[in-house]
Amino acid sequence: MAKRPTKAPPAPLPAAAAPRKSGRPTSAKPRAKKAPPPDAPPESPKADTPPQPEAAADPFAFGADQRHLLETLSLNLAKAAMTAQSAIAEAALSQADRPAALSPDPFNIAPAMTSVMTSLAARPEKLFQAQADLFGRYMDLWSTTARRAMGEEVAPAPSTDKRFRDPAWSENPVFDVMRQSYLVTSDWMNGLVSSVEDVDPRVKRRAEFFTKLLTDAFSPANFLASNPAALKALAETGGESLVKGMQNFAADLERGAGKLKISQADYGQFKVGENVATAPGQVVWRDELFELIQFDAATETQHAVPLLIFPPWINKFYIMDLQPANSLIRWLSAQGFTVFVCSWVNPDQDKAQFGFDDYLHKGVYRAVEKTLEQTNQKQLNAVGYCIGGTLLGAALAHMAARQDARVASATFFAAQHDFAEAGDLLLFTDEHWLAEIEQQIDAAGGVLPGAAMADTFNALRANDLIWSFFVSNYLMGKAPPAFDLLFWNADQTRMPKRLHLDYLRRMYGQNALAKGEFEIDGERTDLSTVRTPLYFLASREDHIAPMNSVYRSARLFGGPVTYTLAGSGHIAGVINPPAANKYQHWTNPALPETLAEWQAEAQQHPGSWWNHWAAWLHERSGEQIPARDPETGPLKPIEPAPGAYVKVKS
User: What is the pTM (predicted TM-score) of this model?
Assistant: First the structure.
């Protein structure tokens, strides 16, 4: 029986391919051809072989450089986040045991906004008109944006706002829309609040101030995701800018003991007595309230009548002696004046009950007495800067009542005596806010911490003194600048409870000095009885002592008054040496009823006002005598200028 044929064995299966690793997809790679031997003839192409297409490039492939940049950026973002979280956690712990604020609304904003909104609701036609205006503005913006998106050449809307200086805010359509949308909305909101007419002016101003603070805070420049300059720095540094920014943030939280204290300058670059406050001189008197500094002569002869300066006790005197090039003290010495400065103590808890009476007798009167004793003179010329000028004005009225003629003339730098139009600082003087201030003072043992006044002044110019540094320090990761003026600005002093609350309540709140209702040392002050020649200096852009407020103050006095208006603000308008050739000033020998009338007839001059004042002062400073040496006077030197009190930190 024949055998059935058997089947051929099956062919072996091909080896299984190695499993593909998880991750991004891979593409087949052509095998590299083996190189022919050196003596082999070149291979001729085959006519029947079509050209093989090259393998497609991997769209997910990164080069080594790109991978490194991505890894660096990821690590830096994580590091920045961890730094910020750690700093915030430490700040929260440090604040946990502190008492809660007296009021969740210390500025008393809620009632003010309620009054404004009630007024707007009572006039629906006005609100409808405002809404239509906003819609119209946005329609214009959308139309321009659409034309630009379709390729039409449309010039971006110009902006003088310093927050949007970077060209990307205008050149990049996305950021340009953000910028313009913000400006449209913020301008509309602020304008709407300002348009209210039947609300108490102070209540309205409080609402305006808060609305401006709010709209400033929500600027797209203040957020990393919407700030093109910050995003560019982030990309260019691989996230290192944000790491540095969060390190700056953590350092400021630590410096503020859990409260954010934004650095405005590189504080380590300056030291009082070494590279600021370096005018040579001697402390010739010291007591519990002030040091009297006599500065060295810079000329062979000097005027017989000395010059005594009372700076504000809110700040330290060396704003007038920052650097040799802009030192008012050095410049006055070079003009032949014998310059004395009252350097106030940085008060501690033991002076909590010091008031205006103490600063009159232990301050002004004693400084006058010791200056005259040191120079062997019967009269002197005095200067009062800011709140130091307020005290000096009250002292002159007190002296007039007692026939005291030791002050031959007085000059006031940005000083107020009539507070009816004292600007936005009036918002911080109602009883609601004063209760909050009093709680802060009591918690500090009877003195207002220096940082409290710094916060107030910063809020008056939030874009310049808060948000610009927030963006630069934290979003951009830049180191604060080495700027002497901002170093001084942060070197704040404490204030005694009684003195400070009386100042806010009686001067700002009740305008008692202008009304003749302010009492000092039992004497009711009447500024109209002062016959001493006076020189008033105001600054056109001053937000602390507005020019009209200073003008109203000048008209309260009964003697001859010279009013001069400088360009710029509270500091730069005053500290403006002639050599800098900056800004301008206006003069008018008359003193009509209103500032507007004065300005209409005023003459403008380029540059500093110092020479104009010096000419006025020369006429009232007596004859020339051999220059005085602070070390050879009746009062024996205690230590070199700038003394010890100015170095005490708050």
Answer: 0.84
